[in-house]
Amino acid sequence: MAELRSLERFLKIKPLYFDFERMEFVWLDTRLIPFEEVYRRTRDYRRVAEAIRGMEIRGAPAIGVSAAFGLALAALEGRASSVEALIEDLEVARKTLASTRPTAFNLFWALERVMRRVYEEASRSGVDGVVNSVLEEALRIYVEDVKSNVEIGRIGSKLVEDGQTILTHCNTGALATAGFGTALGVVRYAWYEGKRVKVITTETRPLLQGARLNVWELRKEGIPVKLIVDSAVAITLLKGMADLVLVGADRIILTGHTANKIGTLQIALAAKHAGKPFYVVAPTSTIQRSWDPGEIVIEVRSPEEVRTVMGKTYLTLEDVEVYNPSFDVTPPELITAFITEKGVVERPFEENIPLVVGLARP
Fold first, then answer.
1. Fewer CB within 10 A of the terminal residue: the chain, N end or C end?
2. From the candidates 29, 145, 243, 250, which is the catalytic residue?
């Protein structure tokens, strides 16, 4: 697509894409970074689901794009002789893909969007038309993610001054999206504008997305980065070592409550105490049309992630009881503003977040 070609100058890291020559979905296995850069590929949507569940693909926008391409693979591999049978196959694939990561809202948004296109096309087309529509919609979601991320970077960069240091948590860069980034996309855009920014990243236990992925991405760009343990956030902010905090989001609801990587709430509390701005950076596809924080499902992952380093070396007794929530929820009173591709959303969030997604407070 011409629109994608115009954006490719921003894609210095290409974490996922669709190979039209071989009709395969391709992704960079983030479990192996920074030590290896290995691309995986498949024609099987079940393998895409496995990659999402197993954290080969991670980050809400990347999960959503990958799930859309997973449905495309399901349509392409199917041997349905009728539109009705094809839709039945796609619904099975949707259920499989939706079961992978319960907190990332982009996953459900992307699956719903592709299936909506399927049902629209089914009313006026045959099997081939429906198959083509699934692939077209998945590609459109991919392109829109890159485009919205670049726009988020442009908008967010206006809030970053030359010479500032940004504290961030977990990976929100190219590896978490279709190729540019949300919170790290803001950093990247500011750097491209010539601003002499620096980054402090948490290690982000237990899977070390900050230590592994952020450091790898920022080093590739030449952006200065300093690594801290997660528990050093408060002292770092109180010492004035960072000027502002930028984090991503896996799910935002209309009240402003935000689910993000575990530890985000603690960072928000520390930023509030230190008087530092705390920005959530995400595309509007991350916003769930809900007013109830109780609807946010918090994924609890394997105890082995905590007992070991990347599943290899035990840090503690092998049978110790572990609680390993992957996300927490930051309340709106701790958030300075949301940075989206449609602009900076400021208070009151209950009025302004619905407006940015075309809704009004009931």
1. C
2. 250
Same domain, residue pair 142 and 174 = no
For the chain, the domain total comes to 2
Confidence band, pLDDT 50/70/90 cuts, at residue 79:
confident
Same domain, 191 and 269: yes
- Asked about 162 being catalytic, the answer comes back as no
* Alpha-carbon dihedral sign for residues 76, 77, 82, 84: negative
Shared-domain flag, residues 109 and 197: no
228-285: pLDDT as tens digits: 999 999 999 999 999 999 999 999 999 999 999 999 999 999 999 999 999 999 999 9
